[in-house]
Amino acid sequence: MINKIKDFIKGKWYREIEENDIGLEELKQLQKEGAMIVDVRSPQEFREGHIDGAISIPEYDIKKEAEKRIINKNKDIVVYCSSGGRSKKAQKQLKKLGYSQVYNLYNGLTNYVNNF
């Protein structure tokens, strides 16, 4: 019974790496190549700390702000949040808007801070 509960909780809060999720090494490489880094957390969270060079577009504003602030729909874009959930939603929204090269930082800023 305990194992079933553990599996249920893991399934609800732990996300496996998916297509177009990237790790830290890929992030570093994309940064070197000039990718746009988009922090999709709230403005308050962004002010508290963010990846160097990132711009702030909260996940709830992606549909409204993306086409104003990210002109090139073929540019490499990396989205991130605290843990990867909001950025995964933002990644899907950007794809629906026609952006072709959108990557999600797997496990979000927590992973970045703990490993840089």
Q: In terms of topology, how is this protein built?
A:
Elements lengths: L1 H12 L7 E2 L1 H9 L3 E4 L3 H6 L6 E2 L5 H8 L7 E4 L4 H12 L5 E4 L2 H8 L1
Fraction in beta strands: 5-15%
CA-to-CA gap between the ends?
39 Å
- How many strand elements? 5
Helix content: 40-55%
Taking all Cα atoms into account, the compactness measure Rg is 15 Å
Mean pLDDT metric? 87
The biggest beta sheet, please? 5 strands, parallel
- The number of helical segments is 6
Rough outline: globular
Structural class by helix and strand composition: alpha/beta
Contiguous low-pLDDT stretches (5 residues minimum) are: 8-14
Order of helices and strands: HEHEHEHEHEH
As laid out across the biggest beta sheet, the strand order is 1-5-4-2-3
Write a concise keyword list for the protein shown above.
116 residues; single chain
